[in-house]
Amino acid sequence: MYLPRSYAETDLAALDALFERDAFVTLTTVDDGVPFVSHLPVLYQRREEIVSIRGHWARPNPQARHTGAALMIVHGPHAYISPTWYSCPEDRVPTWNYAVAHIQGDLRATDDIEIKRAIVSDLSAHYEGALRTSWTPAHGHPDFEPELDAIVGFHFEVTSIALKFKLNQHHPDIDVAGAVAGLRAGGRPNDLEVAD
């Protein structure tokens, strides 16, 4: 990822916030020189500098057979920035502000039934809890167990994290304030998140 120093974020609390906002990631692997991408919900956990990410694929997904080096992208809010929001719009160009994380690591697939049960249980607990519903996996039920055979679990061992928060840091305060006001006036959810 192109990462100018002025946009680089080093505080891992920013990564926590991106995952808390939206843990539906883009996972990229390369097989025989060809990139392959999956879009997946994941479970994120951080203890100090150690980041752990778990999830699963549908068994027919070709990426379920990929192991080794991988790139995971965590998308944050993003928004168009109009030059009309700046103090001297004739001196500026439009741009896009955004927050994103690129996480590199080692991808390991697993068919261990207990690990897959834990992944499914933890994913459903996380997302059902957000909905204030009470569905839980019927582990051990003869109709549910084949569902676990239909997935392949994974663990993503993180080796490096690049956080990019491109949020007009290189502009004068008056232009940053103008961009914030313009974003707030639009009122779209992503615009408001970027303004915040």
Question: Could you walk me through the main structural features you see in this protein, from its secondary elements to its overall organization?
Answer:
Strand 4 (about 45) and strand 5 (about 50-60) form a beta hairpin. Helix content is about 30%, strand content about 40%. The relative contact order is 0.21. Strands 1, 2, 3, 4, 5, 6, 7 and 8 form an 8-stranded antiparallel β-sheet that branches. Helix 4 (about 175-185) packs antiparallel against helix 5 (about 190-195). The protein is elongated and about 65 Å long. With about 200 residues, it is an alpha+beta fold. The protein contains 5 helices and 8 strands.
List keywords for this structure.
about 200 residues, alpha+beta
CA gyration radius, whole angstroms: 20 Å
Count of helical stretches: 5
**What is the general shape?**
elongated
- Overall structural class, as computed from helix and strand content, comes to alpha+beta
Query: What number is the mean pLDDT?
Result: 94
Query: Distance between the terminal alpha carbons, to the nearest Å?
Result: 24 Å
